[in-house]
Structure formats: C-alpha cells, structure tokens
Amino acid sequence: MKIAHLILTYTNPQLTERLIKAIAHPQFDFYIHVDKKFSIEPYLYLRKYPNVYFIKDREDVRWAGYNTIKATFKCIKEIVATGIEYEYINFMSGQDYPLKSAEYMLNFFEHNKGKQFIEYQSIERVWVEAQPRITKYHFTNFTFKGRHRLEWLINKLTPKRSLPLDLKPYGKAMFWMMNPERAMYVVNYVENNPQLERFFLLTWGSDEFVFQTVLMNSPYKNELVNNDYRYIDWSAGGAHPKVLNLSDLEALKKTEDLFARKVNAEKSGKLLDELDNFISQSAQAATT
What we know:
By secondary structure, the chain is of the alpha/beta class. The chain has helices at residues 13-22, 67-81, 102-111, 131-135, 147-157, 180-191, 194-201, 210-216, 249-254, 269-287, and strands spanning 2-9, 28-34, 52-54, 86-93, 96-98, 116-118, 121-122, 170-171, 176-178, 224-225, 230-231, 259-261.
C-alpha cells in the first residue's frame, strides 16, 4: 500500500525535513507545495531524499482565500498524473507533526480501506457561525485597493447568497485523508461547474468547506468518517490554534490522532524531541 503525503508549506524547510524523517518509509512518498509567494530554493535540498517530490504548478496561497483550494486542486492533479497507485492522499501543512510511527499509519490505512477521513458539520444546522462565510460576499482572495469598502457596500445592497446546484453546505477543518479517486471527484465536480467555482471564489475560508460540501452531497457521503485524526488545541481562542509545546506532551501521547498541529521549530523544539523518542519507542515495542 502506497501513501502520498501532501504538504502545503511556506515556513521552515528544516521542520518539513524533520516531519519527513520522522515517518520515512518505502511506502510513503512526500509531495511538497511551497507557496508561490516564497522562494522554493531553501527547500530544494530535500530532493536528496528519493521519495520527495515538489509540486511544479505552484499557487500564491492567500489565507482564507480560494487560492488555497486552487493550490490543493493543482497538487491532487499532479499526484494523480504520476500514475502511481496511491491508496490514500494525506493532506497536511508544514506545521503538522506525526504522533505515530510509519508502520502504525500503514496498519491504520490498511484496516480502513474505502473510508475517507475528514471533519464535517452541517453549516445550516450545527456550524451556524460559519454561515456568513457563504451567505455574504468576500473579497479575501483579492488585493485591490478599496476591496473592504466594496465588500461592505455589496453586502449591504444585495440579498444573502446561497450555494448553486441545490447543494447543502458542510464544513469544518481544512485537512483530510482520502483516496485519490474521491479527491479527484471534488476537483472535477468544482471545475466542471463554473458557477460553483465562481461562487466559492467570493467566500471566506473555502478551504474549510469545499471538500465537505461536495462529498456530503455526493453518492460517496457514506464513506466519510467524521474525523481527520489531527490533534489541535483551540483553547487560545481566535482564528488560529495554539502552537503546541512540551506541556502538551502527555496529552499527545494518549491521543489516537495520527498528527499534531500546529508546531514550529522554536516553540515546539523540545516537544518534537520527545515525540521522536516516543514514536521510536512505540515502534520498537510493536515489533517485539
């Protein structure tokens, strides 16, 4: 069973290297998308690893903008175009870090073939605070002068928006693990319906609801498992999760999640050292 780990990053190439080394395995390939706003040069030394590949058609990713979805679509298409038969694509960021060994992950995917792992909630009934992301116009993906004023004016003068094609909105977290066929279903569905792509372009945080909305309105909705197996601490409040540190170690050891986010090289350095030891010891215990 082969797995494609897809990493969207712009931050720290050494942290990306550390992530790769932590779960290096002959059955794992790593595809790295470096935000087009940033130079790819600092990352290119990672080519020394035979299972590391760089996404060629890079996108200028904008936080909460539709370009994040465009980048994800480009990555999925490049992975599929390789012709390699991957069982899963694991979509993550450069600030994720593994909590389990490569062998543990392979066993997890083997025992869950046919399931797609992504968090979702109904935006109409449960995640109601996300409704304005869809019902209002947002120019987050643009940088022209006066966009905030124009956005305010348009929303004042126009009625609430609703999704085309009678789709019911679902969403939650950005990252997921699914087989390439279902990922390409989302790509093709959106790109073959221009009215839907135009709608998503003028939303906020589309990366947190495009995949959920398309799949939950598809024939494949019963394959979805409402879990992305990421340990995330939102206790700090605001739009960004807490940067994990050594105080989180015990909780991370106990979780069944496969990855933690988010981490960085400075604040999380000691934690990552301990996680490396924990993963190594767990792998050794499993083999004996």
